[in-house]
Design a protein that fits this description.
Length: 59
């Protein structure tokens, strides 16, 4: 069986993402019928934090 692996140079470094408890719960799959944006907002925060980390590591 052929396994393809992705190499991420900073893969073991720690990042911190600041989000509300509701946003974190939404990422685990909890549904908030009154606010569907929670999950998308939380995903955006994670992506933005990763982009910032990767961009600053390249400098």
């Amino acid at each position: 069986m052929n396994h393809n692996t992705v190499q991420i140079p900073q893969g073991e470094e720690i990042i911190r993402v600041e989000m509300t408890v509701k946003e974190a719960l939404a990422l685990t799959g909890a549904k908030f019928n009154q606010n569907h944006k929670l999950e998308t907002d939380a995903i955006k925060k994670v992506k933005q934090t990763l982009e910032n980390k990767l961009l600053t590591s390249q400098r």
